[in-house]
Request: fold
Amino acid sequence: MADSQPLPNRNAQSSGNAAARVRKACLDFNIQDPDKVKVLAETLDSAAQELQIEAARKLAGADHALWLELRRLWKDLARFQLTFWDNEEDEDNEDTTVTLNSESRAVRSLFTSNQNLVAALWETYLSLPEDQVILMKLLAKSAIGVRICISLLDDMLKLFEADEESEGGKAFNVGYAIFTRLIEEGTVPDLYKKFTMPDEIITPHQTTLLKLVDSYLQSIQLDISTTPEVAILQTHVSLGPFLAKRFFTLSNYAQTSMQKALGNGKASPSSSKGIGGSSSPAPNLGPHTTEPPAELDVMLPKVCEALVLVTQCVTTIALEAEEHKGVQFAEGSVASISNMKDFFIDVRYSSQGLIENLIETLRLLDLFLPRIYFGKPVPSSAAAPKVDPTGFLYVKRDLVRLLGALAHESRGVQDRTRNANGIPVVMNLCVIDERNPFLREHALFTLHNLLKNNPENQAIVDAIRPAAELDDAGVLKDKFSALKIK
Reply:
């Protein structure tokens, strides 16, 4: 009796035939030939149907030659689509769009229920050189890509608190990896601009993007004991102008809103004359006699929330620049990379420096937002409006922290702060405020940096005496909030 022969595995055979047909169609493909485009689209559609079977899908997924052809085809089609999106009036690309859709369906079939393949391919894709990361270019450049980014941000917000090992947590990590690569590609300014809405100073998706940038910068903080990576500092350099512009835009908006709420700007003792280094009248730190609140801007809390994020980003970059100032890179001297602390110190917007702008915002915030002590508001002005603290958390703390970081070992920042009457402003922040944890500690550190080796600044502090107001325990009340200029 003849030995029985095993029957051929039809699924495997079908998979092999599908992979071979796709490879041949890819090799024969000509993007300028409508017939070849049609053949490829039909081949991909039929292959996608055959790959619904798991055994066939796994066999085709292991075909290395197939992936090489698909990768080459995807790159060619993506380059063509980039040109297509740049010229929306071009209507001759319908067949190419059909091919992209067909290929996407075929590749999606390979991914389904094949987690090992998904993980390996995604890890490989994110490690590709910049010029080969077509997906990132499509996301940042095209209108379709921007809509995808918005959907990703919405989904990430929903999944933020998901357990890291859950499917939701893994999906969040994939989204974070995508935006990490987008940040490193330098696409943040373009995405932020495309997330803009008419007549809105800040949108929810812009705020979420700033949160991701802040998280990214925190996650890549450099170890001072190791040689800094040039790529990381180059990312800092690329983000610098964007962050500076956002700081001025948000801070100026907040100033205008607070001035209106406090009575059309009458509550602010300094004026633009003090900006840029010239002197302005000394502030009166005693009770204010401004008019009652004129109006409250409903967008101000959102603006302050975004300002906190931008401030944290600027502080992180400035501190990194300070720590690695003068460090040698493997590729050469650090001098080849801009010192971002110096950049933020020197940057100006409409003739106003960042230091002066920051001080004026702090001054207005101290009038506008009463500090919270033991759960009760302690207003610094009789005319301070009743404000919902939601959205204003940490804004004073982070602004004064940034000033301290920029003032460290910088005589120029010390002098500009004095000329803008910023020293009494910082002293007024040396208090406990439950809305701004560690505000007093950051304000004291900033004051230390402003006074170090600067007799002129020290003389201003020496001229200030606290009001001799003691509590029942004999402790001086509100040591700095009661300060007055002699």
Summary: DSSP finds 20 helices and six strands in the chain.
